[in-house]
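Appendix C: a fully annotated inverse folding record. The material below is reproduced so that readers can follow the format used throughout the book. The structure is listed first as tokens, followed by the designed sequence.
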């Protein structure tokens, strides 16, 4: 597989064309941003961890019935994926109050919900990824009604899988963000990443934060937290 020209650079990953028009290569960086790019930094080794963690989860989710863009891990930081056009929705599932939910509704962090919540943001950096509901997404033609239903179904299935997996590692899955893409034929597949950048992960015993909130909130020990969750994952896989 030949890596050809870069077609996109995001905050945490670069995407390259390959000699197969249906396949892209994703290359994970150590760059970290928060607050829509306002805060910038580096988390050394993050790209390797996020690549390897994402791929292991994607492979397991495929087996659990959630189609994904994952094809093959090529190196520590590079992965071959199916070409998709990203549905411009950030899909957020929450099991426990934290982050923008706690802020928006004026509640403390750590309230365990009876049932997980789902919310969408419009993936648009210029607008600061505003929250929107299903009817807004439909009005803006960001996805069809069938696509939204499929995305919701897959997102809850991912939550069931990840919650159980992390629980077996002594980690509480608080919330996470997913992105979906469309293959050439319109099939919806899980894309992007599943990593400590995109999930809140708390130690089950101490509630210590083991994710990007350590960077967002200047808590220190960022690299150690990423390494710790990776270690726990590898012990359970
Ligand atoms: P929030 O509480 O800030 O809305 O974040 C919810 C979850 O989504 C959390 O696990 C972090 C993740 N997330 C991203 O992956 N990318 C983002 O740009 C934001 C704002 C959150």
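Designed amino acids, in order:
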């Amino acid at each position: 597989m030949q890596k050809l020209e870069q077609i996109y650079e995001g905050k945490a990953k670069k995407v390259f064309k390959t000699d197969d028009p249906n396949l892209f290569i994703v290359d994970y960086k150590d760059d970290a941003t928060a607050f829509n790019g306002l805060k910038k930094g580096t988390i050394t080794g993050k790209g390797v961890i996020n690549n390897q963690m994402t791929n292991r989860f994607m492979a397991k989710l495929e087996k659990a019935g959630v189609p994904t863009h994952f094809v093959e891990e090529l190196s520590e930081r590079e992965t071959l994926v199916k070409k998709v056009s990203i549905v411009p929705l950030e899909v957020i599932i929450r099991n426990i109050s934290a982050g923008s939910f706690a802020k928006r509704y004026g509640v403390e962090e750590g309230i365990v919900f009876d049932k997980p919540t789902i919310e969408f943001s419009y993936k648009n950096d210029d607008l600061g990824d505003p929250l929107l509901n299903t009817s807004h997404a439909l009005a803006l033609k960001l996805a069809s009604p069938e696509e939204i239903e499929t995305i919701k179904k897959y997102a809850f299935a991912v939550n069931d899988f990840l919650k159980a997996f992390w629980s077996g590692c002594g980690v509480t899955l608080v919330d996470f963000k997913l992105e979906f893409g469309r293959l050439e034929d319109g099939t919806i597949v899980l894309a992007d990443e599943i990593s400590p950048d995109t999930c809140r992960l708390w130690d089950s015993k101490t509630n210590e934060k083991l994710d990007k909130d350590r960077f967002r909130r200047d808590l220190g020990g960022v690299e150690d937290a990423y390494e710790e969750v990776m270690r726990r994952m590898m012990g359970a896989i």
